[in-house]
Write a structure and sequence with these properties.
This protein has two helices and two strands, in the order ααββ. Helix 1 (9-22) packs antiparallel against helix 2 (32-51). The mean pLDDT is 87. The radius of gyration is 14 Å and the shape is globular. The chain is mainly alpha-helical.
């Protein structure tokens, strides 16, 4: 058994839902400093998704926000 616990799929789905909510922020007034902080948070959340072998699907017409990366080709965010 691996000493490091894998991230549960449900946790990744929750992170994906959080990322989808970031899209709603662009229509709101946000200080530039706060906008920069939010962008860093978004990038960190995307990295968590990516490091676990998935990428985000931002198409709201498709229910599943996570897409499995094939062949371990994680590329770069």
């Amino acid at each position: 058994m691996n000493s490091q616990t894998d991230t549960e799929p449900q946790a990744l789905h929750t992170v994906a839902e959080m990322l989808m909510q970031f899209g709603l922020l662009h229509v709101l007034n946000i200080r530039q400093e706060d906008r920069k902080q939010l962008q860093m948070v978004r990038e960190c959340l995307e990295k968590i998704i990516h490091d676990n072998g998935f990428r985000m699907n931002y198409d709201r017409n498709i229910k599943n926000n996570l897409i499995k990366i094939k062949n371990g080709n994680t590329g770069k965010i």
